[in-house]
Amino acid sequence: MKKKILISPIIIFFLILLVFFYLLIIDRNPSELPSVLINKKVPEFEAKSLLKNKTFISPGEFGNETTLVNFFATWCKPCRDEHPYLKKLSDKNGLKIIGINYKDDSKRVIKWLKKLGNPYSIILLDSNARLGIDWGVYGLPETFIINSNGVIKYRLVGPITKKNYDAFVLKVKEVEK
Amino acid sequence: MQRILLAILVYLMTSQIVITNCYSVEPDEFLQNPKKELRARNISKNVRCLVCQNQSIDESSAPLAKDLRILIRKKVKQGNSDDEIYDFLTERYGDFILLNPPFKISTLFLWILPFFFLAVGIFVIFLHNNKSKKLDYNK
């Protein structure tokens, strides 16, 4: 009996080791954080639009349909890589995408969109990162999927790429159901 | 020779101080009121920078850390309490943004397990000692 108790720390040690080893080999990014906004209503905010001369008021303009909210900037290289996939989502899947331009220069954005195309139904300006903080953004690009009731269902930190595009479309379909 | 050694020693000691007291708050961020500035600093020290995740926003020079520092100072100026500011941050970024995790049901294990393992360790050592006392080494 006593012997069993004495070897128990060794067993516990190896069990802990096993857990660590499991966490080491599974495909995960430890710096990626879960959003606390999941299953919550979109934050309330007001923002100026880049191309349209009106103020965007949240949450009034959300709802009715599944919407993506994409934080981007022209100085962010992964955003540029992601751009064709956003275009594909808006052209092919007919998704409404709200772009939030994070700490950027408006002239550059206009030039950027002319060159690469505009997948966004509206672009909001976030020059002082205040909207980013309200949405819990910590690294660009970030994309949120919002359902037809104006509830945030999913957040992707990092770009939509060739690798995760199909999985992302699947997530959108799941939310649409 | 001794002087050189002394100089090296002093250098090593002071460089350590410089390293441990390395803050990123820029002069233009400071609040005029020293009391409020101190409060903002203390809050900043407890808030994690989500870009460089093992630094507080007080130490980090990441743009997001700077934005949060400015926002915290703005809130301090507006008369928000410390708890209100922490709540504001956790509502958006979750408990992870606090360098000190709060004590609640989901973090219960985090707080209790170290004490549990300490107790197990003491128990095992106690058993081991008891056993070795019983052994007669002279035989």
Polypeptide structure, described:
The complex is a heterodimer of chains A (177) and B (139). Chain A is α/β, with parallel strands linked by helices. Helix content of chain A is 38%, strand content 21%. In chain A, the strands form 2 sheets. Chain A has a 5-stranded mixed beta sheet with strand order 5-4-3-6-7. A two-stranded antiparallel ribbon of chain A has the order 1-2. In chain A, strand 3 (67-72), helix 2 and strand 4 (96-102) form a beta-alpha-beta unit. The longest helix of chain A has 24 residues, at 2-25. Chain B is 61% helix and 0% strand. Chain B contains 5 helices and no strands. The longest helix of chain B is centred in the C-terminal third of the chain and has 27 residues, at 108-134. Chains A and B meet through helix 1 and helix 4 of A and helix 3, helix 4 and helix 5 of B.
Helix and strand element order of chain A:
HEEEHEHEHEEH
Cα(first) to Cα(last) distance of chain B is: 58 Å
Level of helix content of chain B? 55-70%
The greatest interface here is: A-B, 24 and 21 residues
What is this entry, summarized?
The complex is a heterodimer of chains A (177) and B (139). Chain A is α/β, with parallel strands linked by helices.
Index terms:
heterodimer; A: alpha/beta; 7 strands; about 40% helix; B: about 140 residues; mainly alpha
What's the structural blueprint in terms of helices and strands?
The complex is a heterodimer of chains A (177) and B (139).
Chain A: H1 2-25, E1 45-48, E2 55-58, E3 67-72, H2 77-92, E4 96-102, H3 106-116, E5 122-126, H4 130-134, E6 142-146, E7 152-157, H5 165-176
Chain B: H1 2-20, H2 34-45, H3 63-77, H4 82-93, H5 108-134
Helix pairs in contact in B: 2-3
